[in-house]
Amino acid sequence: MPNTYTQILIQYVFAVKHRDALINANLREPLEKYISGIIAKNDHKLLAIYCMPDHCHILVGLNPAQSISDLARDVKSSSTKWINENKYTTSKFNWQEGYGAFSYAKSQLDTVVNYILNQREHHRKKTFKQEYHDFLTKFNIQFDDQYLFNWLD
Within the chain, which residues score under 70 in pLDDT? Predict the structure, then answer.
């Protein structure tokens, strides 16, 4: 019986609502593990994850049985519920609406993994707004800044 073989590498980027820096050091690692579980439960392969205080980067090997948007919805809604139920933040936690999803070739895998895992260092040089604009420009995605994340300037 023939099988389906795919290699779909997707980097997700999404932000905390109002860009609040709610993902502190005590939450970052448990949140990354929880999101990893959501990804595994949906038969995707987690390749890299890093949650900054106000946004998150995830690289997955996507299982085509689930759409890009459905995985983003599942990760964001489940992790929001988990954070709030476990009272990891003093105020109600939510992710902002929307997300970025960017595709990569296998030849880019190591570079993207290193980029994600070195977010803390990367953001010493570049703001999240600059980073996100760079993604949209690099991938030739037309956008209107008023419909992007709430920026802290």
Answer: 1-2, 149-153
Structure tokens, 134: 């760079």
pTM across the whole model: 0.90
Q: What is the DSSP letter of 123?
A: T
pLDDT tens column, 134-146: 889 899 998 887 7
| Torsion angle of the four alpha carbons 67, 97, 137, 69, in this order, in degrees rounded to the nearest 10 | 0
CA angle 48, 83, 147 (to 5 degrees): 70
DSSP class per residue in 39-76: HHHTT-EEEEEEE-SSEEEEEEE--TTS-HHHHHHHHH
pLDDT value at position 3? 83
Answer whether 31's CB lies under 8 Å from 58's CB. Answer: no
Query: d(Cα 123, Cα 107) in Å, to the nearest integer?
Result: 24
Helix, strand, coil % (nearest 5) of the chain?
45, 20, 35
Residue type, 25: A
Tell me how far apart the alpha carbons of residues 56 and 15 are, in angstroms, rounded to a whole number: 6
